[in-house]
Every structure is written in C-alpha cells, then in structure tokens.
Design goal:
The protein has a single domain, classed as Collagenase (Catalytic Domain), CATH 3.40.390. It is 39% helix and 14% strand. The chain has ten helices and eight strands. Helix 1 runs parallel beside helix 8. The longest helix is centred in the C-terminal third of the chain and has 18 residues. The chain starts with a strand and ends with a helix. The structure holds zinc ion. Zinc ion (ZN) binds next to helix 10. Zinc ion binds next to helix 10.
C-alpha cells in the first residue's frame, strides 16, 4: 500500500463524532498509523481564510465562479475558522427560505485550498468539517451537497452527511405543510427520526466510518463506491440506505472484504 500514514483532522463542533473510535477503527482495518490533528481551519492564515471566503456558492444553478465577499463576511469566516461551532448560528437548509442563505462551499475548490497539506505521497489527509461542501453536476447543471470528496486531501462534510442523502419524500411533504401553516417541523422530524440522521446524531461516528472507508478505498484502488447496499462502501442517495448499510449491516461485502484482506 502506498500510504503509510493517515492524518485525521478533527471537527470539534460535532461532539458526537468519537475521533478515538475512528482512529481505532482504521488502525484495526489497515496496517498504517493514524494520527489525529486539530481542526485544519484553525491554522489558516488570513490569505487562506480569504480563499475560503471566495469559494462560497450563492447560486446553485451556475458552475463555479469566485464569490465576491465583503469584509464582514470575511470577518465571519475568520471567526468560524477559529471556532467552527459558530457555523451552527448560520441558517440550516431546513430553515432557509432560499437555498442561497445557506453557507455552502465548492468542494473541489476547498480541496485545492487544502492541497498544501500534501508534503509527501505516503500520507493521506482526511479533513472533517461542518462546512457544507457541494459540487457542480454537469448532468443537471446544478450544485449538489456532498458528504465526501474522496481524493487526497479528502474532505468529509458532517453537514453534507445530514443534507446530501435524501430524507423520505413523505417527510419533505409533511415538513412543507407544517411550514405553510407557520408551524415548526419538529413533529415531522420526530415521526421520521428512524429514517434519517439529524444534526448532533449519536449514530454519526458509525456513519463516518463508512465515509472513511470510501476515502481510503478510493485512494488505494481508484474506486470508492460499491453498488451493494449491504456494504459499508455503498454510496447512499437516501438516508434510509445510509442507515441500513452503516448501522444495520455495518460491514463490507464479500468482494471488498477480500480486497481489504489483500491490502494488508
Ligand atoms: Zn462492497
């Protein structure tokens, strides 16, 4: 295996993610050392924070253009870089009147900003962040939320895990109906809570394990996803499938178990 080491960068704002459990999980699966590092953005200098400010997505229907941020937006970005829990004060997808109110970042551009981390070929950098990463899809000409950007450095967006795989259609209808009546959506959330992950969900560590595996398989084999829903490498488009493969099944399919065995 070309990698000797993985550096896992913490997202301290999401306390449900047990980083020690993730490190142990990886060290048990792969014969490489796993180092835990602080939130990568907290080390950013002013220029890097400016770069991050300029990759926000304001119009999901247009491919990437640099965002012309103002100074107060830059100041906020600087504060979020030091204290990522401030991201929780921004408007969530479920509360937004328009999607442009949500803080979204171009995932590939963010990856470019993080490339300075790559100093040798033997270290795989995996950044966990509560920034919502999105990528532009040429097929339907719009941005989509992404839970994971698989290359090196790889990015796992904890907000993307909540927002990218779809919730049940019935939930969206009920939430919309409640909103139309001026009511909160808590009752709909409660009704469907077994069908999708919510912010600060206790199941997040288990779910992140699957995304870590996708990142590592991608960097080793060039393939990240598995078609088999009974595999932790399954690329879930629905929250219920994500919960099924990561929580209920919680293992690799036969083919990928074999690949893993041969790697070590
Ligand atoms: Zn598989």
């Amino acid at each position: 295996m070309k990698f000797k080491k993985i550096i896992l960068y913490k997202e301290p704002a999401v306390s449900e993610i047990n980083i020690i459990q993730l490190r142990d999980f990886l060290e048990e699966k792969f014969s490489l050392s796993v180092q835990i590092a602080e939130n990568v953005f907290s080390q950013f200098n002013e220029e890097q924070v400016r770069s991050v400010s300029s990759i926000r997505i304001k119009d999901i229907k247009n491919s990437f253009t640099r965002y012309d941020y103002n100074e107060s937006e830059f100041e906020f970005e600087k504060k979020v870089s030091n204290d990522s829990s401030l991201m929780e004060s921004t408007i969530k997808v479920e509360n937004a009147d328009e999607i442009s109110q949500v803080f979204m970042y171009d995932g590939f551009e963010l990856q470019k900003i993080l490339r300075y981390l790559n100093k040798d070929e033997q270290t795989l950098h995996i950044i966990m962040t509560n920034r919502l990463t999105c990528t532009f899809d040429e097929n339907d000409n719009r941005y989509h939320a992404r839970a994971v950007i698989c290359a090196n450095p790889a990015i796992i967006s904890t907000t993307g895990i909540i927002e990218a795989p779809a919730k049940p259609r019935e939930y969206y209808f009920e939430a919309m109906a409640l909103k139309a009546q001026g009511l909160g959506i808590e009752s709909a959330k409660e009704k469907y809570k077994d069908k999708f992950l919510d912010y600060n969900d206790k199941r997040l560590t288990r779910i992140v394990e699957g995304y870590l595996l996708q990142v590592i398989f991608y960097n080793i084999t060039g393939e990240s996803f598995c078609e088999d829903i009974q595999c932790k490498l399954n690329n879930a488009h629905w929250q219920k499938d994500l919960l099924f493969s990561q929580i209920e099944i919680n293992s690799l399919c036969k083919k990928h178990s074999e690949i893993l065995k041969n790697l070590n």
